[in-house]
From TrEMBL:
Residues 45-65 are annotated as: Disordered. This is Uncharacterized protein. It comes from the Archaea. It comes from Methanomethylophilus alvi (strain Mx1201).
Length: 376
């Protein structure tokens, strides 16, 4: 951080409006130049560029600038107001934690405003991030999105395409015969290879797509079941009926959850892909007829379900996006979780914040990825 980064302008020392007793923990050994028991965070003034400033002139803002603490100090949990108490839990000195966030980088993204209302010292409601079902579900969906975008989507470009077949035929034939007089014949053969490949190419593309769609739907069912189990659900089976019953038991109508239609739509698609049965077909046709192609042909048991689906109405990106409000509403209304508080109200949040701000490159493994070490 340079002297011109005024995110860390020295905060004013003002009266403690809450009347908190800050004497529980002593931080004098850290010798912070601007810390006192009545320290209160004030938003930094925006830096004003002065073109007339002399090279060696020090502005009032630069005089107030307080740099980063010594790295050896910043890695001390107590510097951050993080104190171990009985039972292995952590007690957070709220004002000191806010001060450390301010000193070590960027206050706003890391210090939860709601924490300030918890009093001078606070023990989080949970220990680990996934002790909140909401965090578990959101992290699981994020992992699915990453798998889809970075692992599975690139596979579609690896499928041998009609253009690949055309080029492959042309190259191999010319290499074998090398006769320019055969050019017209080779071109005709390459076009035949192109059209001959089309049906197989589109079939493989569709199979790949519906394979991952099935995986996503299965994973959504799994993580919902896991979330319910985390909340003491003891049934040995899981179905849409069980989910509705679980919601009813919490006094919530399943059909009042946001985007419930998205959940049921893709559940019906999954059942049709899984069973290839008339019953699954008729159910999908009844509630989501647009997901089926328009045809005069009658569906029979065992016909390949994929051939009957309208790909324009089925979208993995849509599912991964639109299922989020459903899961959020489920956590909020059925499980009674505070979604905003779940983002930070657990012990590990404070430890992770300390590690990330004290040395972001170390925390995210950038040193090793770049062939560097923390001592370079």
């Amino acid at each position: 951080m340079t002297g011109k980064d005024h995110r860390t302008i020295k905060c004013q020392q003002i009266h403690n409006p809450e009347g908190w007793n800050m004497a529980k923990y002593d931080y004098s050994r850290f010798k912070d130049p601007d810390w006192s028991d009545d320290w209160v965070y004030q938003k930094p003034k925006p830096y004003t560029y002065n073109p007339d400033k002399e090279p060696n002139e020090t502005t009032e803002e630069e005089k107030e600038y307080v740099g980063w603490p010594d790295p050896q100090i910043a890695c001390d949990k107590e510097y951050w107001g993080i104190h171990e108490v009985k039972g292995g839990r952590l007690e957070i000195d709220v004002r000191r934690f806010e001060y450390a966030c301010y000193r070590c980088g960027d206050h706003d993204p890391y210090f939860p405003e709601a924490l300030r209302k918890k009093g001078p010292h606070y023990i989080a409601s949970k220990v680990h991030r996934h002790d909140y079902t909401f965090n578990y579900l959101m992290d699981s969906i994020r992992n699915l999105k990453e798998d889809w975008n970075y692992e599975y989507k690139p596979l579609f470009n690896k499928v041998f395409s009609p253009k690949d077949a055309e080029d492959n035929y042309r190259t191999n034939t010319m290499m074998m015969f090398g006769d320019s007089e055969m050019f017209d014949s080779v071109e005709l053969g390459s076009k035949w290879a192109y059209f001959n490949r089309m049906n197989t190419y589109y079939r493989i593309q569709a199979e790949l797509y519906y394979t991952f769609l099935t995986k996503v739907i299965i994973e959504i069912h799994r993580i919902i079941l896991r979330a319910m189990t985390m909340q003491l659900y003891q049934n040995t089976e899981y179905s849409v009926f069980d989910l509705k019953t679980y919601c009813n038991g919490a006094g919530v109508d399943f059909y009042h959850l946001k985007n419930w239609k998205v959940y049921l739509k893709y559940n019906d698609i999954y059942n049709f892909l899984k069973h290839n049965s008339i019953q699954a077909y008729e159910k999908l046709k009844k509630f989501n007829s647009k997901c089926l192609i328009e045809t005069d042909q009658k569906y029979e048991n065992g016909m390949f379900a994929m051939d009957w689906l309208n790909s324009k109405e089925i979208n993995i990106d849509e599912l991964l996006s639109d299922i989020v409000p459903f899961l959020q509403d489920f956590c909020k209304k059925v499980l009674g979780e505070d979604l905003k508080q779940a983002e930070w109200d657990y012990d590990d949040y404070f430890i992770e914040t300390q590690k990330e701000l004290e040395d972001p490159m170390e925390h995210f493994g950038i040193y090793g990825a770049c062939g560097m070490s923390p001592w370079d």
